[in-house]
Amino acid sequence: MKRQAGAAKAPRIVDAKAQSEGFRANRAARRNVLVEDYVELIADLLAEGMEARQVDIAARLGVSQPTVAKMLARLANEGLVTQKPYRGVFLTEAGASLAMDVRRRHRIVESFLAALGISTENVRIDAEGIEHYASEETLAAFERALDAGLQSFMAAGVIQGG
């Protein structure tokens, strides 16, 4: 098959160093996903006036209590939570700081996806993943787009295109 005149060339593969950096960043994010999910959930439970008990964490994350116990031990070793017998789990200052950052990232991603017109259900589901992988540069771009009226722009496009 001949290439038509003026047709774009297939993209070249990026150099090994640049490509490996992307994979490294992805692996680092994957290692942090569970930690971030746990501290965010614990913060949410505590903010709602509930106790962050192992049974509640397990139910909300859809995992077993032994899985939660193992992660809580890891979080305690990393200085992110403390556990009090018969009282549940509490965030340390470092844990609360991490939870605030994760919430901020989550809020930005949710707002951006909602402005694009994504359904509420998919906004909730997709934000749970994207928040962990988006760089600060990407999150800043999301915020700039939102501040510049992305939601209005998308609504106008939908109306004109519909």
Automatic annotation (TrEMBL):
<keyword id="KW-0678">Repressor</keyword>
<dbReference type="GO" id="GO:0046914">
    <property type="term" value="F:transition metal ion binding"/>
</dbReference>
<dbReference type="InterPro" id="IPR022689">
    <property type="entry name" value="Iron_dep_repressor"/>
</dbReference>
<dbReference type="InterPro" id="IPR001367">
    <property type="entry name" value="Fe_dep_repressor"/>
</dbReference>
<dbReference type="GO" id="GO:0003700">
    <property type="term" value="F:DNA-binding transcription factor activity"/>
</dbReference>
<feature type="domain" description="HTH dtxR-type">
    <location>
        <begin position="36"/>
        <end position="92"/>
    </location>
</feature>
<dbReference type="InterPro" id="IPR036388">
    <property type="entry name" value="WH-like_DNA-bd_sf"/>
</dbReference>
<dbReference type="InterPro" id="IPR036421">
    <property type="entry name" value="Fe_dep_repressor_sf"/>
</dbReference>
<dbReference type="InterPro" id="IPR050536">
    <property type="entry name" value="DtxR_MntR_Metal-Reg"/>
</dbReference>
<dbReference type="InterPro" id="IPR022687">
    <property type="entry name" value="HTH_DTXR"/>
</dbReference>
<dbReference type="Pfam" id="PF01325">
    <property type="entry name" value="Fe_dep_repress"/>
</dbReference>
<dbReference type="InterPro" id="IPR036390">
    <property type="entry name" value="WH_DNA-bd_sf"/>
</dbReference>
<keyword id="KW-0805">Transcription regulation</keyword>
<dbReference type="GO" id="GO:0046983">
    <property type="term" value="F:protein dimerization activity"/>
</dbReference>
<comment type="subunit">
    <text>Homodimer.</text>
</comment>
<dbReference type="Pfam" id="PF02742">
    <property type="entry name" value="Fe_dep_repr_C"/>
</dbReference>
<comment type="similarity">
    <text>Belongs to the DtxR/MntR family.</text>
</comment>
<keyword id="KW-0010">Activator</keyword>
<protein>
    <recommendedName>
        <fullName>Transcriptional regulator MntR</fullName>
    </recommendedName>
</protein>
<keyword id="KW-0464">Manganese</keyword>
<comment type="function">
    <text>In the presence of manganese, represses expression of mntH and mntS. Up-regulates expression of mntP.</text>
</comment>
<dbReference type="GO" id="GO:0005737">
    <property type="term" value="C:cytoplasm"/>
</dbReference>
<dbReference type="GO" id="GO:0003677">
    <property type="term" value="F:DNA binding"/>
</dbReference>
<keyword id="KW-0238">DNA-binding</keyword>
<keyword id="KW-0963">Cytoplasm</keyword>
<keyword id="KW-0804">Transcription</keyword>
